[in-house]
Design goal:
Blueprint lengths: L1 H35 L2 H4 L7 H5 L2 H5 L1 H4 L24 H8 L9 H4 L13 H9 L4 H9 L5 H7 L2 H4 L4 E12 L8 E3 L2 H7 L19 H9 L6 E11 L14 H4 L2 H4 L3 E6 L5 E5 L24 H27 L1 H8 L1
Parallel strand pairs: 1-4
Antiparallel strand pairs: 1-2, 1-3, 4-5
Length: about 350
């Protein structure tokens, strides 16, 4: 028993030692945020939103990991804090980016704020494109893409740029709630913010707007209820083909010129989808959606239709009726001529 007790004590000690760096980092982060979380104290340029930073991967390693020169006397010591280079931790990404078309034109910090960075599944496709729009003006992109790409505006609005301009892969369909920004029926739809969704939910968790039974899973029936609910007529679902694994080898890949890369990828690739909802800290939370949602263009995702991969049972039935109706005349006419062939022969004689 004593041996077993000793083993438990050693195990507990090892666990505490393992957690100690993170506990210390959290304390250091809190001390930093006492000043840097207050714009009046440090100024707008040096302000860091504590809740946003706390939910980044960088927060886990702590402020001191990147600003190692900071002492207990900061800022009274008058020393400028050191800043770690991104490649000290992200060497593989640095090498990948160094061989891309972007290398030499933009540094990491031009696209990524180290106090706001998140993984690809916690960022919306629209936010990804905002990074690109810092340099690539939308009007110019519409003009250049419109020279060869049908409905360039629709494609640019509903695809992250990295889908076509990098080797990012493992694509899924991410569904976002968009909101009409005016009271008229012709108002423009934009990505709904957390505050807007919270208002629509009546104070309940915003997931309940679609996940009505709160089981953490979106069924096809729940999607239909959301799409057909008159109380939610100012809201819609927007689908985007987003990568699970991001690449920084920015380029124009040959197979992206081929429409079949997206439009003939088959039902299997279109089966995996998630509802991605804005959160109070600026991140996005994903909820798994029942397979088949993207294939049901009429009720599942009425505003996301990919010709060649999307199907609708209702439209299939309509198509069959149209085909059957179109066959009635030639078949009926041919049948009548066959049945009356003897009468016509007698008349001719």
């Amino acid at each position: 028993m004593r041996i077993l007790s000793k083993i438990k004590q050693i195990g507990l000690l090892m666990s505490l030692l393992t957690l100690l760096p993170f506990m210390v980092a959290a304390m250091e982060n809190s001390e930093c945020m006492d000043c840097h979380g207050d714009a009046d104290m440090v100024g707008k340029e040096l302000t860091i939103e504590p809740l946003t930073f706390d939910n980044t991967a960088h927060a886990e390693v702590g402020c001191h990991a990147c600003h190692a020169s900071i002492t207990d006397q900061h800022p009274d010591d008058g020393l400028a804090p050191s800043k770690a280079a991104c490649n000290e931790c992200h060497d593989e990404v640095n090498d990948e980016y160094g061989n891309s078309l972007h290398a030499g034109y933009a540094d990491c910090n031009d696209c990524h704020n180290p106090h706001q960075v998140r993984g690809p599944t916690a960022v919306s496709g629209q936010d990804m494109n905002l990074k690109c729009a810092i340099c690539h003006e939308r009007t110019e992109m519409l003009e250049t893409h419109g020279e060869w790409l049908p409905q360039a505006d629709l494609h640019i609005s509903n695809l992250p740029c990295v889908t076509c301009h990098s080797a990012s892969d493992e694509y899924v369909i991410s569904l976002y709630i968009i909101k009409r920004q005016s009271g008229t029926m012709f108002g423009k739809f934009d990505l709904a913010t957390y505050d807007e969704l919270h208002e629509f939910s009546g104070g309940k968790p915003i997931e309940r707007l679609v996940d009505t039974n709160a089981d953490g899973y979106i069924s096809l029936a729940e999607l239909r209820m959301f799409n057909l609910d008159p109380a939610k007529k100012q809201l819609r679902l927007q689908g985007m083909m987003t990568p699970e694994r991001l690449s920084h080898d920015f380029m124009t890949l040959d197979n992206r010129w081929d429409c079949s890369f997206c439009h003939a990828s088959g039902p299997g690739a279109m089966q995996v989808s998630y509802l991605s909802l804005a959160q109070g800290d600026g991140a996005f939370k994903r909820i798994a959606v029942e397979k088949g949602a993207v294939l049901d263009a009429l009720y599942g995702t009425p505003d996301f239709y990919m010709v060649g991969s999307t199907r609708s049972k209702a439209l299939n039935y309509v198509g069959l009726v149209i085909l059957a109706g179109g066959m009635v005349m030639p078949i009926g006419h041919g049948t009548l001529r066959f049945l009356t062939r003897k009468n016509r022969k007698n008349e001719e004689e």
